[in-house]
Design brief:
The complex is a heterodimer of chains A (333) and B (313).
Chain A: E1 2-3, H1 10-18, E2 29-30, E3 33-34, E4 45-48, H2 60-70, H3 75-89, H4 104-116, E5 122-126, H5 134-151, E6 154-159, H6 162-168, E7 172-176, E8 179-184, H7 186-191, H8 196-201, E9 208-216, E10 222-225, E11 228-231, E12 239-247, E13 252-254, E14 261-269, E15 273-280, E16 283-290, E17 300-305, E18 311-314, H9 327-331
Parallel strand pairs in A: 1-6, 1-7, 4-5, 5-6
Antiparallel strand pairs in A: 2-3, 7-8, 9-12, 10-11, 12-18, 13-17, 14-15, 14-17, 15-16
Helix pairs in contact in A: 2-3, 2-4, 3-4
Chain B: H1 11-39, H2 43-47, H3 60-66, E1 67-71, H4 86-93, E2 96-101, H5 104-135, H6 141-150, H7 156-170, H8 176-201, H9 204-212, H10 217-228, H11 230-246, H12 249-254, H13 262-265, H14 277-297, H15 299-310
Helix pairs in contact in B: 1-14, 3-14, 5-8, 5-11, 6-8, 8-11, 9-10, 11-15
The chains are: A alpha+beta (333), B mainly alpha (313).
């Protein structure tokens, strides 16, 4: 999963892996073989385009068999392969139709068919669900995932949708401004963001940053916010100056005994939970609390944080400080 | 009374629109019909005043167009054999005998070779150039495109003398090859610009998909781009052919004999044996046919081509 905002370079990365663009520097390896300067046709990689790019002058069968024809495969063999793929995707009944009149989902399946028919080393998918209706996207993402598990080949999937990435990905690469911010399994990326960008990009609402001036020393397990002391995971790095206390909304608790108060600015009711926006001495904060709690705008509420989930960031670099909690994650990130 | 509708014209509006279209069609088609009719008139009917709408059809114009004749002088009649064919008979009725074919057929053939030859070349070069302009990063691309278009900005007569001198040096004067090259050059600006528009409309993703599917860049061009550009190529071909077919100024200046095309030849028919308007009209009528047929065959493409070009950014 390549995840990032538009223009961050994720599609370019994908295109370089596939051989549609050449890197200006660096090397690309597929199965240990250097392919940096090889043509796309020699890399044995399939690509599913965002707009599907089905050949409009060919019908479904011809579209799917197109990559096999370039390999000079025998006609009977092509026919058998196409039939097999059509069965997997459930598109046997539309094989002789022109691609022009197909629904978005069928086009998607034909595009997938063209990709899987030649059993490539890897699949590249550039926002393959981006052109589909919202309701259909859910269904198709499950189909994609099932197909991936069945094929077993590596799939590189580009998306700007964090939910899609979390749902479908085994591992996620978060990118921004052309560089990798973090690489890891979805849980690690969500719980232990390596940078403030990742913390802000993943999660809805995103991670809260309570900004403060101060210093953290190696070995500290407490931090003071506007005179109130909070427990945090034991820190392994020292830093001082402008820091940020990062905590996810679901790890913020309302606690009347706490002297750290925030005034309720807004409430978003979501059914099972509600998101309340509070004005604290260290900036605006969002908390996800149980929907049953009776809260009114203007009230002052005491706040507590789950001490095991806090990440401290250096504001100047945006990078998370190492602690005992995120050490294992960020070391290999 | 039904309410006023913005999108649906009323019956009266439809009538007015229909009437306007029919009037316009009559006005524009009248000369064409007149030419076709004149071709089937006798020379007397063709110049009669007031003009004859109803006349006795005659093939004299067509016979005169394809033959050269000499007038039967008194005393000659006794030595003549009886006419062998229907066209001999037509000529004999008009007081002439056929002594050989005219040069119309050969001039017509020149038009076909030069017209279709230059169209073919303009399309081949135009498609490849347009593809390159559309797909590749080319330094000073905009200037090059403007330069190509600028060849159309002056009237042919302005460059006729330099081209005449050039052709004389190269030995291309009055040759089919010379005319093909000239018309190709003039048509290239049109074909490059039109085809670039059509190719721009074809998403690059199709070619990328072909590259991924194991094809080379050139295979992607002719297996994926060309079939999709077929409409544009067809309509561009029509425009190119119409230009090359009807071109008069260069033809009259640069050809005189072997490579002369039909447009400069047709007026010269007038001079043979008096003002032979039916033969001129017959020549013009036949000359219309190939382009008309070509256009009718491809008219679906042509119509789509025109509207396609119109909505482009």
């Amino acid at each position: 999963m390549l995840l990032g905002p538009s223009g961050c370079g994720k599609t370019t990365t994908l295109r370089m892996i596939a051989g549609l663009e050449l890197p200006t520097s660096g090397e690309i390896y597929i199965n240990g073989e250097e392919v940096s300067q090889k043509r796309a046709s020699q890399r044995d990689i399939a690509f599913v385009f965002q707009m599907f790019a089905l050949y409009p002058h060919l019908n479904v069968r011809q579209n799917i068999s197109y990559p096999l024809k370039s390999q000079g495969m025998k006609r009977a063999q092509i026919k058998a392969k196409v039939a097999e793929v059509a069965k997997i995707l459930g598109i046997e009944d539309i094989l002789s139709k022109p691609v022009g009149g197909l629904s978005g989902g069928d086009r998607q399946r034909v595009a997938l068919g063209r990709a899987i028919v030649r059993e490539p080393k890897a699949f590249m998918m550039d926002e393959p669900l981006g052109a589909l209706d919202a309701e259909f996207r859910e269904h198709m993402s499950q189909e994609l995932r099932a197909l991936h598990d069945r094929m077993g080949a590596t799939t590189v999937y580009v998306t700007h949708d964090q939910l899609e990435a979390m749902q479908m990905g085994d591992k996620i690469v978060v990118m921004n401004h052309g560089s990798v911010e973090q690489f890891g399994v979805p849980q690690e990326i969500y719980d232990w963001p390596a940078t403030m960008f990742v913390a802000d990009f993943i999660g809805s609402p995103p991670m809260n940053f309570l900004r403060f001036k101060g210093s953290i020393n190696d070995g500290d397990n407490k931090v003071s916010l506007s005179g109130q002391v909070f427990d945090i995971p034991k820190q392994l790095q020292s830093a001082s100056g402008d820091l940020a206390f990062g905590v996810r909304p679901e790890h913020v608790f309302l606690d009347e005994t706490s002297a750290y108060k925030g005034e309720v600015l807004a409430i978003e009711y979501l059914g099972t939970t509600q998101i309340i926006t509070l004005d604290t001495p260290n900036g605006v904060l969002k908390a996800r609390v149980a929907a049953l709690d009776r809260i009114d705008v203007g009230q002052k509420k005491g706040l507590m944080f789950n001490p095991r989930t806090v990440t401290i960031f250096a504001q100047s670099t945006g990078v998370a400080l190492l602690s005992v909690a995120n050490k294992g994650v960020l070391d290999h990130g | 009374m039904s309410g006023f509708s913005v999108t649906q014209p009323s019956n009266r509006q439809k009538w007015i629109a229909g009437l306007l279209v029919i009037t316009y069609a009559v006005v524009t088609l009248m000369p064409l019909l007149w030419i076709i009719a004149t071709g089937f008139k006798s020379p007397e009917d063709a110049i009669s005043y007031p003009p004859k709408i109803v006349f006795e059809p005659s093939l004299e114009g067509y016979v005169n167009l394809f033959s050269s004749r000499t007038r039967i002088t008194p005393g000659m009649e006794e030595t003549l054999q009886p006419p062998e064919t229907w066209y001999d008979q037509v000529a004999r009725d008009a007081g002439t005998i056929i002594v050989g074919p005219s040069r119309y057929g050969q001039r017509f053939l020149n038009s076909v070779i030069i017209g279709f030859g230059s169209t073919f070349l303009a399309i081949v070069f135009g498609t490849t150039a347009a593809y390159a302009f559309s797909r590749f990063k080319i330094p000073i691309k905009d200037d090059l495109l403007f330069f190509i278009l600028s060849t159309r900005m002056m009237p042919p007569i302005a460059v006729a003398i330099p081209i005449f001198l050039m052709f004389r040096q190269l030995g291309l004067n009055d040759t089919q090859l010379g005319m093909i090259l000239l018309y190709t050059a003039v048509n290239l600006s049109l074909s490059v610009w039109l085809l670039k528009g059509f190719i721009d409309e074809i998403p690059f993703e199709y070619e990328e998909a072909a590259l991924i599917d194991g094809y080379t860049r050139f295979q992607a061009f002719y297996k994926v781009v060309l079939p999709q550009a077929a409409t544009g190529i067809a309509s561009t071909a029509i425009f190119c052919l119409i230009f090359a077919w009807n071109e008069y100024a260069f033809a009259v200046l640069l050809t005189s004999g072997t490579a002369q095309t039909a447009p400069p030849f047709i007026p010269t028919i007038i001079g043979v044996g008096g003002q032979d308007w039916p033969a001129v009209a017959a020549g013009a009528t036949l000359f219309l046919m190939p382009v008309m047929l070509f256009t009718i065959l491809l008219r679906k493409h042509l119509l789509r081509g025109i509207t396609f070009g119109a909505v482009r950014k």
